[in-house]
Amino acid sequence: MATKTSTAVTNTTLPRSNIGVNAMDVTYNFGGVLGSAGDVIQMLPISLGTKIISIEVAGGSVATNGVVRHVGDGDDADRYDRGRTGSLSSVFTLCNQPAGVGYTYTKDDTVDITLATVTSATVTGSLHMRMTYIAP
Question: Strand pairing partners for 100?
């Protein structure tokens, strides 16, 4: 169980001056390090006042058979998607947890992917996330 951080989180904050609808894409590459149950991958930074329109996730080259994953943030690990099982394909899948649609952040945070269960031996490759949001 570890917290991993994408380059978007380490190198970027959402620009507060980009008022209106924005989109951001990020890829997290496991880089040969195996993922395991309980890992939290901080994918995208969120600024105070940001309103989420949609979040999509794809697996890219991830070998994730037997993985249960959540998409959420520091306050609610499954705010956007709860308990999606199976392998992640290279096709973007819309996160569909109704509570997350239109959610507005009251503090800076990150949108995360949590690997809740890993029944296969390894989680490797890369994860992709696309977020559409309204900046304050």
Answer: none
pTM: 0.83
Q: State how far the Cα of 124 lies from the Cα of 66, in Å rounded to an integer.
A: 13
- Domain ranges, residue 107: 3-135
74: helix, coil or strand? coil
Domain count, the chain: 1
Q: Are 112 and 74 in contact (CB under 8 A)?
A: yes
Q: What is the pLDDT of residues 83-94, one digit of tens each?
A: 776 555 666 777
Strand residues in the chain grouped as ranges (E): 3-5, 20-29, 40-46, 51-58, 67-73, 81-85, 93-94, 109-118, 126-135
Edge-to-edge order in the sheet of strand 93-94: 20-29, 126-135, 51-58, 93-94
**pLDDT tens figures, 27-51:** 888 776 667 778 899 999 998 899 9
